[in-house]
C-alpha cells in the first residue's frame, strides 16, 4: 500500500499500542516508534516526519518538554498530544505550544486516524469534497441561470455562485475554470434581465431595494427605535470579500445578511450619493444643485456626502445628530480610534472606508499590485489582509464593546474585465471604462445598454442630447485611437460602473453586538 505519510509515535508504553500501530500501517501510513522523549527528539532530528504523536506522561523528558523542543527545531510539523490527564493547566500548556490536536486516553484507532487525516490530508479532502459538491450543484446552477425571473432569484444565484467560488478556491483542480464559465453565462443572462427591467424600476414603485432606499428602509427604522447606529460604507466591496472577512467578526457580532441592488452607473459619484441623500442622481441635481458635481468638473465627486446626509434627515424630519468620517488610510483610522469616545454623543455615525476602491485603482496603475492581485482569489486575499491588519477591525471591535449596531454595506462592487468594446466620444466624454455619457458617442448598440432619455432613468442630463451607455458582463470600453494600448493596459483589471452581478448585487449586513 502506498505510504500516506511518515508518522513518529512516542509513548513509554508503545508495546501496548501494537494494535493501533498495525491499524495505521494497514491504512498506508509509515509509522516509526520511540518509547521516550529523548529518542523521539533524536529520530525527529535525523528523519523528517509528516506528523508526530506524543504521550504527555513519559519518564525523563515529558511530553510537554519534548513538544517544546520539537517546536523549536521543526515548528511546522503537526504534533498530536495524548494524555491520561484532563487537568486544564496541562491542556493550556499544550495548546499554548501550538499542538495540532489533543486526545485523552484511552484512545481507539479510529480517533487517531481521524486526527491524522485532519492534519495530514485536510487540504486534499476539502478539495475533493468541494469538487464533488460543485459537480452535484453544476446542474442546479445552470437551471437557476435559465429560470431566474425575479431579483430574489438573482440574489440566490449570485450567493450560490459566490459560495462555490470560495469553496473551489481551496482546490487545485480545474473546476474553478468551469465555474468561471458558468459565472460568465450567468452575467450574460443577468445583463439581459436588467435591460428588460431597469426602466420599469426607475419609472414605477415596483423595484428591488436600491441605493436610494437603503437609508430610509434599513438605517432610519433602527434610529427610530432609539438604537445607536454606525453606518459603514466600504467602497467597492463585493459579496465574496464580505464572506472572506466575516469569520474575523463572528466573535463580536451576529449577522443579518441580505443583498440590495445598486443603481446605474455602479460608480461612487452616483450610487454613494444616492445612498446618503435617499434620492436618485437626477433628483439631487434638481433639488440640491450646489451638491451635485458634473462628470466634467475638476471638483472631487464625493466632497458633499455629509451635507447630503443632512438633507436626508431634514427631508424625513428627523433631528438625529450624526458624524461623518472618511477613512482613506490607516493613520485616519488610528485617529478615529483615539477620538472614539467623541462618537458617543451622536445617534448616527457614518464611516466611509476607501481602501478597497484604492486597491482596485492601484491594481490598474501599479504593476506590482497587478501581480499581487492577478485573480479574484488573490484580490480577496489582499482585501482580507487589509482588514485583518488595519485599524478597521479594531474600529469594529470598539463598536461591539460599546454595544453599537453596525449597518455595513457598499455603494457598488467591481468586476474583472476581459473583453474590449470600441466606443468613440468627444473630449468631454468621461473616462470610466464601464459606462460612458456624452452627446456624440459612437458605439455598437448591440453590445451595450443605452439610455437616451437619462432623466427618465433618474440620471442627470448635462446636454439635451446626452446619452449613457453601460458595459455588460466583463466588457470594457476602449477607444479606437491607441486601441492596443488600452487593451493591453486594462485587460484583467477590476472596474466598476456597468452591469454585472458583482457590481450591482451588493452586500447589506446588520451587525448586532454579542
Describe this structure in words.
- This protein has helices at 18-26, 37-46, 63-73, 88-96, 109-120, 122-147, 151-168, 175-203, 214-224, 239-249, 268-277, 281-287, 305-315, 330-338, 355-365, 367-372, 376-389, 391-401, 483-490, 501-504; strands at residues 5-10, 29-34, 51-55, 79-83, 101-104, 229-234, 253-261, 322-327, 348-353, 405-409, 415-416, 419-424, 435-438, 442-443, 449-451, 467-470, 475-478, 494-495, 505-513.
- With 514 residues, the chain is α/β, with parallel strands linked by helices.
- The strands form 5 sheets. The chain has a 6-stranded mixed sheet with strand order 7-19-10-6-9-8, with helices on both faces.
- α6 packs parallel to α8 (175-203).
- The chain is elongated, with a radius of gyration of 28 Å.
- The two termini are 51 Å apart.
- 39% of the residues are buried.
- The mean pLDDT is 89.
Number of strands: 19
Number of helices: 20
Q: Percent range for helical residues? A: 40-55%
Coarse structural class: alpha/beta
Amino acid at each position: 500500500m502506498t505510504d500516506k505519510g511518515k508518522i513518529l509515535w512516542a509513548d513509554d508504553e508503545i508495546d501496548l499500542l501494537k494494535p493501533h500501530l498495525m491499524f495505521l500501517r494497514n491504512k498506508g501510513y509509515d509509522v516509526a516508534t520511540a518509547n521516550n522523549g529523548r529518542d523521539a527528539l533524536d529520530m525527529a532530528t535525523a528523519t523528517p516526519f509528516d506528523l508526530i504523536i506524543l504521550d504527555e506522561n513519559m519518564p525523563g523528558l515529558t511530553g510537554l518538554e519534548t513538544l517544546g523542543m520539537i517546536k523549536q527545531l521543526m515548528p511546522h510539523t503537526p504534533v498530536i498530544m495524548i494524555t491520561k490527564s484532563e487537568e486544564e493547566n496541562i491542556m493550556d500548556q499544550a495548546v499554548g505550544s501550538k499542538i495540532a490536536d489533543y486526545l485523552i486516553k484511552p484512545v481507539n484507532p479510529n480517533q487517531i486516524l481521524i486526527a491524522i487525516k485532519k492534519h495530514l490530508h485536510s487540504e486534499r479532502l476539502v478539495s475533493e469534497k468541494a469538487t464533488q459538491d460543485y459537480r452535484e450543484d453544476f446542474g442546479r446552477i445552470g437551471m437557476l441561470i435559465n429560470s431566474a425571473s425575479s431579483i430574489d432569484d438573482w440574489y440566490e444565484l449570485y450567493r450560490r455562485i459566490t459560495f462555490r467560488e470560495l469553496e473551489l478556491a481551496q482546490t487545485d483542480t480545474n473546476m474553478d475554470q468551469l465555474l468561471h464559465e458558468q459565472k460568465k453565462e450567468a452575467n450574460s443572462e443577468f445583463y439581459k434581465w436588467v435591460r428588460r427591467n431597469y426602466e420599469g424600476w426607475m419609472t414605477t414603485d415596483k423595484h428591488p431595494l436600491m441605493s436610494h432606499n437603503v437609508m430610509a428602509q434599513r438605517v432610519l427604522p433602527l434610529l427610530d427605535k432609539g438604537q445607536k447606529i454606525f453606518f459603514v460604507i466600504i467602497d467597492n466591496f463585493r459579496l465574496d470579500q464580505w464572506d472572506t472577512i466575516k469569520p474575523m467578526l463572528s466573535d463580536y457580532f451576529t449577522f443579518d445578511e441580505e443583498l440590495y441592488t445598486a443603481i446605474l452607473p455602479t460608480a461612487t459619484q452616483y450610487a454613494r450619493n444616492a445612498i446618503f441623500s435617499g434620492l436618485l442622481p437626477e433628483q439631487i441635481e434638481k433639488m440640491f444643485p450646489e451638491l451635485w458635481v458634473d462628470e466634467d468638473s475638476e471638483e472631487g465627486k464625493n466632497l458633499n456626502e455629509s451635507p447630503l446626509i443632512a438633507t436626508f434627515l431634514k427631508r424625513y424630519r428627523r433631528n438625529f445628530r450624526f458624524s461623518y468620517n472618511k477613512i482613506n488610510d490607516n493613520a485616519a483610522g488610528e485617529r478615529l480610534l483615539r477620538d472614539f469616545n467623541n462618537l458617543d454623543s451622536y445617534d448616527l455615525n457614518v464611516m466611509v472606508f476607501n481602501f478597497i476602491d484604492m486597491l482596485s485603482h492601484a491594481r490598474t496603475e501599479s504593476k506590482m499590485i497587478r501581480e499581487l492581485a492577478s485573480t479574484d482569489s488573490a484580490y480577496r486575499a489582499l482585501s482580507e489582509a487589509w482588514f485583518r491588519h488595519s485599524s478597521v477591525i479594531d474600529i469594529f471591535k470598539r463598536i461591539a464593546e460599546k454595544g453599537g449596531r453596525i449597518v455595513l454595506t457598499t455603494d457598488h462592487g467591481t468586476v474583472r474585465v476581459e473583453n474590449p468594446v470600441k466606443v468613440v466620444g468627444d473630449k468631454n466624454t468621461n473616462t470610466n471604462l464601464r459606462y460612458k455619457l456624452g452627446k456624440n458617442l459612437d458605439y455598437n448598440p448591440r453590445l451595450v445598454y443605452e439610455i437616451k432619455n437619462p432623466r427618465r432613468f433618474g440620471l442627470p442630463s448635462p446636454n439635451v442630447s446626452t446619452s449613457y451607455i453601460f458595459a455588460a458582463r466583463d466588457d470594457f470600453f476602449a477607444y479606437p485611437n491607441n486601441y492596443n494600448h488600452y487593451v493591453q493596459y486594462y485587460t484583467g483589471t477590476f472596474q466598476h460602473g456597468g452591469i454585472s452581478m458583482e457590481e450591482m448585487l451588493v452586500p447589506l449586513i446588520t451587525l448586532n453586538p454579542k
